[in-house]
Amino acid sequence: MAKRNEAAESRPAVRPVRLTSDMSMPKLSAVEIGSYIAAFAGLFFVLHLQLLGALLAGMLVYQLVHMIAPLIEKTMTSGRARWVAVVIVAAVIVGGWRAGRSCSSIIFSAMYRASRSFSIS
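Below the sequence we write its predicted structure tokens.
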């Protein structure tokens, strides 16, 4: 049985992490610092420009496509399956939006007719 330090030498090389008792942060590379700055700037602009709803909707569509595509990949290639998944998600969204608009227009017209019949002249 290998000791801990012998087993660690056989593993592939990864970025070393300093484990110290003073809980100090490891040094970050320039790429990591740049990625943190880009993430914070993106978050700031999403909140400042009030795009949080669009960001969440885009992330939802992305996740739905990646959940549907493996089911379609059984019958076609991966790239084509992703396109078919995008078309399915878009059709469901547009169809639901259209159905919602037609239902709301029916409800509003019924409410308008009802309010006209109860008006006191």
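The first helix runs from residue 4 to 10.
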